Amino acid sequence: MINQLNSPYLYNVNEQNCVNGVSNKWDSRKNCILNLKTAMNNHFDINQREKCCFCGLYYDRTGRGELEHIAPKGAGLYPQYTFTPHNIAKACQLCNSSSMKHTYDPITVLNPVYQNCQFSIVHPYLDNHNDHYKWNYGLLNVLISVNNNSSKGIKSIELFELASEKRTRARAIQRNQERLENIFNIPNNIKRRILSAISI
Ligand SMILES: [Zn+2]
């Protein structure tokens, strides 16, 4: 229920020039950076189907999704990866909160080439999630467990509280909704709003 992402946001020539001109300043107010963030948000909403890159749940359940740096961009951490495409995805507010991911440093072995770094968590783009997680599907609960004693699986489940009762139930509700959406073939966003209104 948490899928590996395969579509990082790739810059066009103008966007790349813009990025090159702001020296890794994510909060630049330059128009081209503001426009880039809007384009990124739209890209991830479509490619992640509005699901959090860490917990796989619809991110509107815990507030709007947020552009997330998998390796934090803050001072003393990894400002060099601020605009690295494979370091950016959308996460729910809960996973990105100070009690969970926030400034957690997931890199265990640094490499100048981002994709060659080693990570302590299941990486949204670089890991096959099925190598690290196992699922047990029920109508009321979808249980997650560690596959093959994976240390990344253990760390991600702990950090994002993926095995909590709340998340276990939320996954079951989401899975049931998706099955209904498939049966009725109603656009996902409309169906989800109707069903989440009913389930409250
Ligand atoms: Zn999440």
Description of the structure:
The protein has 200 residues and is of the alpha+beta class. The protein has helices at residues 13-20, 31-47, 151-159, 165-184, 188-199, and strands at residues 66-69, 88-91, 107-109, 118-119, 133-137, 142-146. It has one domain. A hairpin with an 8-residue loop joins strand 3 (107-109) and strand 4. Helix 4 (165-184) crosses helix 5 (188-199). The protein is globular. The structure holds zinc ion. Zinc ion (ZN) binds next to loops. The site of zinc ion (ZN) has 8 residues, from loops.
Keywords:
globular; 33% helix; 5 helices; 200 residues; binds zinc ion; two-stranded antiparallel ribbon
Helix/strand order: HHEEEEEEHHH
Small molecules held by this entry: zinc ion
- How many structural domains? 1
Shape: globular
Structural class call reads: alpha+beta
Strand order of the largest sheet: 1-2
Question: Quick check: average pLDDT?
Answer: 92
State the helix count.
5
Question: Can you give the helix content as a percent range?
Answer: 25-40%
Strand content: 5-15%
Radius of gyration: 17 Å
Low-confidence stretches: none
What's the helix and strand layout?
Elements: H1 13-20, H2 31-47, E1 66-69, E2 88-91, E3 107-109, E4 118-119, E5 133-137, E6 142-146, H3 151-159, H4 165-184, H5 188-199
Antiparallel strand pairs: 1-2, 3-4, 5-6
Helix pairs in contact: 4-5
